[in-house]
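Recap from last week: sequence in, structure out.
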Amino acid sequence: SALKEKEYGALSLSADNILRQSKVPPFAERVAELKSTLLDSSTDFEALAKSPTLSAGVDLLTALFSDKDDAVKKAAMEVYIRRVYRAHRVNNVAISQADGNFVCDFSFQFSDVEAANSVDRQGELVVVPSFDNLKKDMPKILSGFGGKIGDKPTTAGGAPINVLHIASASAEVNDPANIEGIIMAEEKKLNMLGIRTVSVLIPHEKNDPYYYSFPQCSGYAEDPLRRNMRPTFHHLLELSRLSDNFNLERIPAVGKNAQIYLGTEKSEKPVRGGAQQVVFLRAISHSPGMVTEKGAERFLLQGLDELERAQANPMVNAQSSSRIFLHSLRELEDTTPEQIAQLYGNIMGKLKSTLATRLLKLRVDEIEVKIRLLTKGSNGEPVTQSLRLVASSVEGEWLKPSVYLEKPDPVTGVATEYCLVNPEGGAGEMCFIDPYGVSNIVQTKRAVARRVGSTYAYDFLGLLEVGLISEWSQYLKETGKLDPIPANLFESQEFIEGANGELTLGSRPIGTNKNGMVGWLVNMKTPEYPEGRKVVVISNDVTVQSGSFGVEEDEFFYKCSVYARQHKLPRIYIACNAGARIGLVDELKDKLKIKFVDEENPSKGFEYLYLSDDDYKVLPPGSVTAVKKSEGWALTDVIGSKHGIGVENLQGSGKIAGETSAAYDEIFTLSYVTGRSVGIGAYLVRLGQRVIQMKNGPIILTGYSALNKLLGREVYNSNDQLGGPQIMYPNGVSHEIVEDDQAGVASMIKWLSFVSKNVGALPAVRDCADPVDRKVAWKPTPTPYDPRLMMAGDSAMGGFFDKGSFKEYLAGWGKAVVIGRGRLGGIPMGAIAVETRQVEQVVPADPADPNSREAVLPQAGQVLFPDSSYKTAQAIRDFAKEGLPVMIFANWRGFSGGSRDMAGEILKFGSMIVDALREYEHPVYMYIPPHGELRGGSWVVVDPTINEAKMEMYADPEGRGGILEPAGITEIKFRYPDQLKMMHRLDPQLKLLDAEMEGTEFEDAKEDIQAQIKAREESLKPVYLQAATEFADLHDKTGRMKAKGVIKAAVNWEESRAFFYWRAKRRMYEDSFIDQMMAADPSMSKSGAMEILQSMCTVSDFELDNQGVATFYEKELGAVNAKISSVKAEGIKAKIAALEAEMSAL
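Predicted structure tokens:
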């Protein structure tokens, strides 16, 4: 049952069924229990028929039709009829005997039509001993039923209204064709009686019975689609809506109340790639709680399980969409349609969030739930109001929820019109229900996007909304807040080009774009910015010319990106493309002629291509350059009249490449690769630097088939070999790999949560449940450890950052360094830590080179290598563009200086760290953690003097800093001779032996004493080496670093969280105030601005009391801003005075 491949689909389903059946009590035991319930005098048959516990027992009732006890037989028949017609108004049930057969007569109406307006229908269930004599018994059965009907109407609106059920009491094997022949022979009489459907039931020993349906609409021939389907299922599941536009094939389902159909669109013309498939899941439910969050989730999970099993069926293709329909038969009381509509919108939002991954994987485009409200009609009698809850992507927006009131046809019971329910109250628009339509333009485009392994561009808006709901749910859960998720959580306006090419914001019907690039300005209410933040989203539309870049696409991309830069907004690019567009002047293809060297022997080659005189003259002027020849016009250049088919597309690609490079420097840029990104698409995501890659989204310059042609042999067999996650993650192009598009969107939102809403704004702070004064329980050890635990902690002990906030990026590249983003008391920070364990760099083999082999290069812990140096510098640059303060947990022993790494440009990449820090415009905190050390060149590249205005260094008392490690220092500055001197100076035995050596004049005695001295020195050597090393180590401790002013302060690891929180909060305000004052008055220095702030602050220890100063800034924000305004005013006055003085001097 765990086999997932398509070819095992039938086997997997059979195995699953066997496993499920093994958990069901024996048939005889269940029948006996049901029989006992029926014989219980306190049993209310009507209530039992509506009980959700009878779901599996309704088929068991048929096994009691042959019971020896007549009371059981009658009870089983009545409960069966009431259960099967659960959704109807059953007015009376009468059981009698005729010709030795038990007969159950009943009348019923549609419950969602008032009784006075509803059509009275007659039904009869006849249980015959066997079908051996059915041909002979059939006239009697019809005659008896006719007598019961009497003069009651048999049709309504020209359609039959009555039903006939015939059940066999014996489990016998009968050919449905024989039964069909017997029934069809009575067609005339059946029509006279107004029999809409003849349902036949045959018991199956120790199993569910066989059901056969013979509807009047097919001349009473059996409907194969209804085989083994309970009599009213066809109506309850609204199967007639499917068959109008789809060829249906039923495929196995596990649930007894569920049916699955594979629908293939009916089409008169051949369809490229085959007709669109839809997997329809139809089910009924008797269970309560359908409009509760848990009940709805339970139903949807069961439905998704059924769809997942259906997807294993070999007949279902990978592009098929899915639609779910549930008819909940249990009536709801004491509620209104408006209340249901509001509740449904909330529930669907949460379900889309929690189940998005499975909904996307199974390509669910529509969810319909039909529920029934118990209300009162105009005469005060009970009447059922049907309400249809729909979440549909058919019109474009992903699973958009809406609720409709239904008005059924009194004759057929099928809804003919419905109106939209407004959750706020008020009438909705009147519409009509049509059969399930064939694929519209949106569904066709959605199928195209799925075919390349992506999601339709417009569907990403729905995924963003779902991701926001998930982010809010997680945030509220973590903080314990009871606040509701904000209304209007996600709003979008589409960028649309006007007639003159200007960019405007508006909306248009989804799927009507002709440009393969689309963009939106979205407003998202996030936990950091509950009032809303704006983001520019640009996306390839892979359904327009494969998402390729033409001139129009390049121009649109450029304008959207410029808009983001001008408004200082984050820019997200969703990449799914085929690179620069390739084209030819197609209208010339059927006009081309060839001038062969030898017309009789074309293999000798040709001289030129030419056009006939007539063809040349009808071409638009300038579309070709040609020379007149005797045959016609020899082509020298093909230009064409259509712009955007060749090299001009490359010019556009260069334009947007430059724009993306500028955007990275000026604003936050983030790219998500889904499906594929080729050529200029690959360069764009790299130029934007931050890249999230879907596992099935290769980033390539050229397709593998083109490379194979270039190499002249089949070397590569997929694009993943060239640019899949196994290539782009280890080389640092991709920062993160995700499973699917919903995970990709969630990662985008997570990354945005660390970024301020505008360039230059204060960091995006969010409330935090993790106390800032919490001790940092997870402590680094002297032995190698995982540095991620130092920052994030584990389940038992908290780390430096807020619980659950740290997220690592670029984990596949430069593994000797760990970089990520986290929060400290809600303040977002960039983080760089050092791997203390040995890691491996894997260099893959090149399939194009038969001699190439995979290389595994070990890298020691606490050492900077070329890749980890580059990674560190790149991370610092990324943090700078995001406006983040940075926490560097410095724990390096130096750079790797071997010949391999020197050739690998370690000096170049190490220097890049200095460049990145020198340019950094936000606070940078270096911190040497417990048992950490910072030595040699690795200290040099992070020393605070590189950027004194922004960088500060701290150390734990157990941290160390120096040029060399103590063992290395002793080898140079405290060598063995120096250690010998200390031994002879301190050790009593050596001092005694030295005195004896001086006092003796005998050579033999001297030799003996010398030997004793040598032995003593050897015994003391280890401990004195240890003492020398300790002496060298004392030079590297925090006390000396602080005394020499190379660190700002010693900070205990346990208290580091609180210290750096208040320090970061203070700097966040302080730097913002100073920057504003210096911008307001260019003549003001940083020290001058700081003096103004110090003069305003009432905290006694302005230099060291970070908490006090930060609290003052927070409380007196108005006063500080007023002071900044006055500084600005004074600066303007000074500038005016200077200008006046300059003018007077002229």
